[in-house]
Amino acid sequence: MGPGLWPGPTRVAALALLIAPVLAGCGSAAHHQAPLGFRTLPAYLPTSTAPVDQIVTASASHPQLATQGVAVQVDLPGGRVQATATGPQVPPFVAPPPPAVTAVFTLSLTQASGTVSVRLADFTITDQLGRTFQPALVTGEPALPATAPAGTVLTFHLTAVMPTGEGRLHWSPDAASPVVSWDFIVEND
Q1: Residues 129-140: pLDDT tens digits?
Q2: Which domains does the chain have, with CATH numbers?
Q3: For a designed S-S bond to 148, which of 74, 109, 130, 185 qualifies (C-beta 3.0 to 4.6 A apart)?
Q4: Residue 133 and residue 126: Cα distance in Å, rounded?
């Protein structure tokens, strides 16, 4: 006799056996606890005393890793500037997805003081496999000034053809290694 031919009471009993474990968890103490946002964290979890929502300072002796959209105060021997990177912006999804896409990053340098060199060669990108890409200015973008201008915002756009996945945009002004890097993900979906 197949499942559709079971007598009425047998179907009810089988259904009760399937639903009982689900219903058993519905009425316990889980409904009597405050929502997670109002409960204290368990004592065994580590706590941090690091301040939040503050701009960190990067220098050659103390490089920083940031996420896209987070401003970083960059201190250099000749000056300082606040740097922010956003992106990447990529073309709309197409099927099948291509193995690589054109990624565009927007960089903004503000609150410059002293002399902060701005050279395209100081920017590099690495992907999750450790491959290095040398970005270019977006077509039509004016040439970068030699230094970040004081009292104004310098915004420019860098581009590179990259595979999808994680990566980092690095800035190495006047240094052999990056002073600040921004994490990002190239997605085309």
Answers
A1: 999 999 999 999
A2: 56-186 (2.60.40.1240)
A3: 109
A4: 6
